[in-house]
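re: ur question from earlier - yeah i can do the single chain one, its not a big deal. heres the input i used so u can compare w yours
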Amino acid sequence: MTKAISRNHRQAALGFIFITACLDVLSLGVMIPVLPELMKRFNGGDTASTALWVVLFATTWGVMQFFCSPILGLMSDRWGRRPVILTSIFGLGVDFLFMAFAPTLWWLFVGRVFNGMTAASFSTAGAYVADVTKPEDRAKGFGLMGAAFGVGFTFGPALGGWLWQFDHRLPFLVCAGLALCNWLYGFFVLPESLPPEKRVHRFDWSKANPLGSLNLLRSKPDLLGLAGVGFLFQLAHNVLPSVFVLYMGFRYHWSTAVIGLTLMGSGIAGILLQSFVVGPVVKRVGERGALLIGLFSGCVGFMIYGLAPTGWLYLCGLPIFAFTGLIQPGLQGLMTRRVQPWEQGQLQGANSAMMGVTAIVGPSLYLLPFSWAVRHDATVHLPGLPALIAAALLLAATVLAIRVARPVAVEPSVA
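and the output i got, formated as tokens:
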């Protein structure tokens, strides 16, 4: 298992990574409905205090990811993807055990810090995909990664809510078990994807930080601009977990069950698109075309979400917004073509660090305008303001992508 992956095993390895990513994100999705409830129990049912803790947890996790992702990305370039993926999965399992047996909120906090430090399995899996696929096939491979992400966040919350009914510790124990099975699966089955001759020769601390990652992005033609497109997309996408449950309940008076079904339907549409549409679209219009279609569709979808006066009109935006599933495959395909095999981990670490920034600033960017819009609803009547802000960000990303998302010559295929 320590030998680099052979040509005949590339497709199998891609399947292994897909399953690993599915289990990883599924366990994270389980936490969405139950972690705030557990924190509320520790706070004696005080919702206001719990909200402050939720912000602290989310911000701390984002800060840890911002500083540690570049380190883990460069580690994967130096010592291979496999050990970093296994370390990250193990960190996730430890985090869930902390949650399951935590006697106080501070124990939960320590678990989240530890997880934030090791949260690199998904980004390193992206470097793995770049290792085992030809440049012209990478968009399809990243589409499968997007589908794995969709599976986790579509079915994870439903699983978490169901398990919570039996015991408030059970979701965390189940997730710890999933992480352990995932780790064992990776330890015994997952081969290494980056051969020794394609690794960096030494671990350079000057590159293992956010500023060092920025230097990588600046050193390649249009790579920094593409990273900016990704940043704007992630920042816009952050509106969904930040306010959309509150927004749908306030504007359309939907019950929790209806909101859950709506989110699940949106997730299923995304999974289907990333599984069956990404490949043909990229083959027909290229990675640049797929990226632009996805960004423009997201802009239109968010505008429908923000302006729709009725729930039925809101639902009309779901199939349009689903085409945002083209963004990451197209973007990652363009970005991975611009770096060498021994820089793929550093690239994914830089992308994760930027995601950490969006996780820090995103909630305030959308919750504060939503709070203002709700307070002035009688006169302004614009509760969809956060969605319109997200639409503006995607419009800016579209304009930037038109300029920087230029195709590059295909580098030699992986050996």
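The domain at 209-406 is CATH 1.20.1250.20 (Growth Hormone; Chain: A;). not sure if urs matches, ping me
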